[in-house]
Amino acid sequence: MTGCFYGVGVGPGDPELLTLKAVRLIQNADLLCYLSNEAGHSQAKEIARFALDETKRSQQRLPIVIPMSRQRDAANAVYDAASALIAKALDAAQSVVFLCEGDPLFFGSFNYLLERLQGRYRCQVVAGISSLHAAAAALQRPLTQQEQSLVVVSGRHSDAELLQALATHDSVVILKAGQARSRILALLKRSGRFDQGLYLEQIGRPEQRIVGDLAELENKAGPYFSLFVVLKK
Amino acid sequence: MTGCFYGVGVGPGDPELLTLKAVRLIQNADLLCYLSNEAGHSQAKEIARFALDETKRSQQRLPIVIPMSRQRDAANAVYDAASALIAKALDAAQSVVFLCEGDPLFFGSFNYLLERLQGRYRCQVVAGISSLHAAAAALQRPLTQQEQSLVVVSGRHSDAELLQALATHDSVVILKAGQARSRILALLKRSGRFDQGLYLEQIGRPEQRIVGDLAELENKAGPYFSLFVVLKK
Hints:
homodimer, alpha/beta, Cobalt-precorrin-4 Transmethylase, domain 1, Methyltransferase, Cobalt-precorrin-4 Transmethylase, Domain 2, 2 domains, five-stranded parallel beta sheet, 8 helices
């Protein structure tokens, strides 16, 4: 009997937004994996710190360091190596948890490991609170109601795609808004929905910032983990 | 000092998908509110049952029974009466929790209470796992990756709206698919994305059903809590 590979969402940043299932699986894991930077810092592990502190028995750790370069080859080699180590643990009937910021299957790196192990090993995914729902909770505004529609796009989409999303759907969430902030502000004006826009960064963390009036937002690039929410009034 | 009104998401059905924060607030609540049918059954309360069992001290309960009719007047009168009772508890410095299936601000009834109390009382929202992320976890398929876009529509949208969503976005989730199932199946064929469609009902519950090949799905109405997920291969 081989072990099971779990992708476990730890939510957007508040350690209390881990699910009971996430805590149980983290505490029972034989091998705990997570993305990490070269200095050893892991945002996902940081969010899960209370679950980790309560771990009584020895548990192996596998930090996965993805090269900063945009070249997919280098990243693919790291995922290949990590999935080989995970496969070895699964062959030894170990339980392996990969910690994922937010939700594992909503814009994240988990799928790079999942697609390498799926089919060969038992896999299970534990959903986490995504930035979508964390944003709505922070704003205390419904993301969607009744007959409304919602679209999720990103600052990497073209002007035409963003304008079409804004023209077509009641609720629009624009993720990865850091580099594209100025362009998004201009498009919100062109679409006539500037006054419906709200801006958030670092949701659920001590550095959380919410801007309810976009006229007050600096017209320059911001952090990667920032987003716009556009809601009908 | 008045009390705080909390909208607390309990997730899609699996009691282990409650967050630590949800459990804490439920256990500390002086007044616990939830939607209920006339027979006294509440899906949200059922999902939260383990948190409730551990409640040691006396806690008041407020089941809110919304009339089945589609008339908004009757429902509004019930929300008016419930929010008056909640306001009274808040005036007495009590902590009030309203249990929400899934996420409180993603298609739900919580906003009917929130809009009646917001501004007058302290309010806080605790995000929950929505059916979106529960579906992706059950399917073990990424909802979105990299430059993809996601749209969430419902079986109540028009043919034109559904076809446009299918033509424009990589990932399409169609909620409230019960009554509209036959129409959705026909539209998936027209859009050329029938083979990318997946069907789910009762996610995370013992009755959970996943249909990976839509040719095997009966061409007739299904339960309210059913949805289609259409993902690029």
